[in-house]
Amino acid sequence: MIFKNKIKKGIVAGLLSLFMILLIQCNSYSGSVQLQNGDLLFVTAKEAGLSGAINNVTQKQKMASFDHIGILEKEGHKIFVLHAAPKGGSQKQSLKDFIEDQKKDQQNIVVYRLKPEYQKSIPAAVEKAQSMLGKPYNFNYILDEGSYYCSDFVERAFSDNHIFKLEPMTFIDPKTGKINAFWQEFYTKKNLKVPEGEPGCNPNGLAGSEKLERVGSL
């Protein structure tokens, strides 16, 4: 009887250990990357459609080809992503759902992190991002105080500490030297002039910041 009880206790202890390991993995979703509060999650760009059009006129480096970005927030044992997306606007989404959304579109997530000397800006940035939740998505990609697009949301969150900077936007196709056809049609349908040269930002531009370091992929 004593021997059987020891076996049962051993089995229970083993199951509990396995459960704890699975629980930790499910909450972190980090794989080989140990996620930290304030990490920036960049989503790889597609080759066509809006994603491809964004990347066509903004890609600066071969290893950085992104069309979306969000800020990771750790809240106890839970992990969220603060971001502005066409579906849902500025929102707080569980990391699990964020990852699943990208997988549905066959897009990958790359983690970037502020270099140590800039880490002190994270608490204020997360707090500011929280204050911007609930605003609609900016489908015009022209800076507006009442709505945000993804990189705009992140740039504003860190703006008090000047982590990123706005730059003149360009919609020029580097292959032709002319306005990208997608963007010309995009703004014509909205009865707007292509905002060439107006201040703005984009995921590829933010990824190219010297204040960030690439950590790995989820």
**CATH-defined fold name of the largest domain:** endopeptidase fold (from Nostoc punctiforme)
Oligomerization category of the chains in this entry:
single chain
Strand content: 15-25%
Cα-to-Cα separation, first versus last residue:
48 Å
Structural domain count: 2
Q: Taking all residues together, what is the mean pLDDT?
A: 84
Shape: globular
CATH architecture classification of the largest domain: Alpha-Beta Complex
Q: What are the low-pLDDT stretches, counting only 5+ consecutive residues below 50?
A: 15-30
Describe this structure in words.
Residues 15-30 have low confidence and may be disordered. The chain contains seven helices and ten strands. The longest helix has 27 residues, at 2-28. The strands form three sheets. The protein has a six-stranded antiparallel β-sheet, sandwiched between helices. A two-stranded antiparallel sheet has the order 6-9. By secondary structure, the chain is an alpha+beta fold. The protein has helices spanning 2-28, 49-58, 95-104, 122-131, 150-157, 181-189, 203-207, and strands spanning 40-44, 66-75, 78-85, 89-94, 109-114, 167-168, 172-173, 178-179, 199-200, 212-217. It has two domains: 1-30; 33-165 and 202-217, Alpha-Beta Complex (endopeptidase fold (from Nostoc punctiforme)).
Topology:
Layout: H1 2-28, E1 40-44, H2 49-58, E2 66-75, E3 78-85, E4 89-94, H3 95-104, E5 109-114, H4 122-131, H5 150-157, E6 167-168, E7 172-173, E8 178-179, H6 181-189, E9 199-200, H7 203-207, E10 212-217
Antiparallel strand pairs: 1-2, 1-5, 2-3, 3-4, 5-10, 6-9, 7-8
